[in-house]
User: What shape does this take?
Amino acid sequence: MKIVAKAIIHEDGEYLLQLRDDDPSISYPNCWSFFGGEIEPGETPWQALQCELEEEIEWRPKQGSFLYRWNNPEDFCRVHFFAVPFTGSRQQLVLHEGQSFGWFTLQEIEHKDLVATNTKQHLKRTSYLGIILNASKLNNKHKQKE
Assistant: This one.
């Protein structure tokens, strides 16, 4: 089973999503989803996520909070989700993977076309439970080693 790490990147009530490439050989082609990727041997989920974000958008977060693990029945992989508060300048993000990226509120995501179903479900789950804000506050200065 493939193991991946995904970032729920947030700032000021908005979430950063990636419009994935329109390539049928990848998971959720041409859909808006979270940034992240596969965990390589010897990496922790947090280390893998930092590397993926640096590769994908030239941003390496210093902090993040482990939220939960989820087994994706559609893609047959285990996903480690992290709440990652955005720090820095949005204008300095440079996209290297995917067609586009954007910042959206939960309401915008709910009504947006081409959003992967599980993306909406995870955002609703974490938003409903207040997980993202609480996790970010609890681990404000802690680097996640999960």
User: Anything to note?
Assistant: The chain has one domain: 2-138. DSSP finds four helices and seven strands in the chain.
